[in-house]
Structure formats: structure tokens, C-alpha cells
Amino acid sequence: LWNIVRQAAPTLIVAVGMTFVITLGGIDLSVGSMLAVVAVLSALALSVGWPLWLMVLAMLALGVGLGWFNGYFSSYQAIPAFIVTLATLSILRGTAQLITKGYSIPIAPDSPFLWLGRGRIFDIPVPAILAILVVIAGYILLNHTRFGLYVTGIGSNEEGVRRAGVNVRRVKMLVFMLSGFTVALGGMVT
Q1: I need a surface site. Which of 31, 73, 88, 164 has the fewest CB within 10 A?
Q2: Whole-number Å distance between alpha carbons of 77 and 64
Q3: Vertex 58 angle, CA 123 and 96, to 5°
Q4: How wide is the angle at C-alpha 100 spanned by C-alphas 56 and 34, nearest 5°?
Q5: DSSP string, 125-170
């Protein structure tokens, strides 16, 4: 059962970010390819000797940056999120395949990175603990903050929220950046 929980954890982490996107009334088709690119680049960075902390920060920044890209073009350039994220999906899938050339990238068996995906704390898998923490943080952010209220409001009545003085485009972009962050985190615990 713990193995199943550990394997479901990355999907749960990504689902928290997608919950925000869907509540907003948007869609993000690129999360699977984004997760693949983050996982591939994580393994590549570690295989060339990057320290763990630098790789983690770089991958989280990459996820936020890719989310910013999706959010910027869908909110500020008024391109439908479906089109933007479909294009991002294709670009990222091709990038992951180009980097790997169809082969896996080995990570040293003594790498501390493996602890993120295989480690245990009090016999509970680390990915499961991270997933639970992300779910709790997502719940609090969506249900108990002004930002969550704006996200829900935009999904229900975007024009009404805009007329209430909320910068709707900025909130949309932040939601896509949050989605990118959760995808990057999920990509590192796979």
C-alpha cells in the first residue's frame, strides 16, 4: 500500500496546481510534458555534478517560468489557454525526447536526490508526506485566502471580479505559475 501511495504522490501534487487552473476556468494541457522535462533535466543536472539544492531551485524556477509563459500568453495576450498550453505541450515533449534521445539518464545510487522519491520518514514515503503538505497548503490557499477567493470568483464570473477592481490578468498568470511550481515539485519526486 505504501508503494501505491508513493507512486500516486506526484499525480496528487500536480493535481493541486491543476485544481487552481480548473477553478479559474482555465485548462493546462502541458503539465505532463512539463513534468517530463523537469524530471529529465533534474537527472541531467545531477549526472553532470550539480549540487542537490541548486538543482531543486533551478527546477522549481523552471516550473514557475514555464507557468509564467503559459499564464502570460493566455492572460495578457488573450490567446486561449487551450492553444497556449497545447503549444507548450508539443514544445516540451519534443525537448524531453531530444534531450534523452529515448534513453534514461542514470543517477548515482548514492545521490541524496533519490531520497525525495524513495526516502521514508517514520516509515512513511517522503513523496506521500510532500503530497499531503502540498494538499494542505493548496486547501488553505484556495479556501482561506483572498487569492483563493479571487480564483474562485474569476472562474464563476470573471467580468464581475474585474469590475470589483481585481487585476484578473495577474491572478490568472499567478495561477499558471502556481501550477508550474506544483508540476516541478511533482517532477522531482517521481
Answers
A1: 164
A2: 18
A3: 90
A4: 50
A5: EHHHHHHHHHHHHHHHHHHSSHHHHHHHHHHHHHHHHHHTT--HHH
- Partners of 121 in beta bridges: 124
**In the block, which residue shows the cell 487552481?**
20
Integer angstrom CA distances of residue 42 from 77, 98, 137: 31, 15, 24
How close are the terminal C-alpha atoms of the chain, in Å?
Answer: 17
For residue range 79-121, list pLDDT tens digits in order: 999 999 999 999 999 999 999 988 888 888 888 888 888 888 9
- The answer to whether the pTM exceeds 0.90 is yes
Report yes or no: 54 and 172 within 8 Å, Cβ to Cβ: no
